[in-house]
Amino acid sequence: MSDETGLRVMVVDDHPMWRDAVARDLAEAGFDVVATAGDGLQAVRRAQATAPDVLVLDLNLPGLPGVRVCKELVGGNPSLRVLVLSASGEHADVLEAVKSGATGYLLKSASTEELLDAVRRTAVGDPVFTPGLAGLVLGEYRRLATEPSPAAADEPDAPRLTERETEVLRLVAKGLSYKQIAERLVISHRTVQNHVQNTLGKLQLHNRVELVRYAIERGLDGV
Question: Model pTM?
């Protein structure tokens, strides 16, 4: 049985031929394509009805822009993973998508294999970006981190992380994937996921992007 079996994916794009081609590639690779949509409002309705694990989302949609779709769906279901698949590599579009809750951002120039790999990695919470865009996102969070945090890390009520959770958090902030972290610490991929989920719960954060910002605000990315 492949890793894709049972993984529920939805494809949103306003170009029918492109949307159908992506859905077909995903289905042929073993993913369960539970729905497709051609505009923003339709995307929200169908995603709420079918509960996909991963949403492959174009940004340029009629009715409701992709970033609004992302923000609304992730806001209602923080466990939803969103992979933006866009023709735009504009920095403003990338940052807006990530701040709206997208886990990754891939350009439409990517190959089918790159898309399939991106969906697999997005499903487990890895941030996936077309080369060059990951540095942009981390750079933006470093810029935001120069603003004082409302809650200092040494406050009495600050959550206590274990030594291993802090170690994993530091590597997350450096931009390593779960697989890379597992190899670095000589632990399983599942153990890394568990540490990240525990840390998210303790810090009351919703996704890995927020976790990266938390770590950078506390200087963990440079240690």
Answer: 0.67
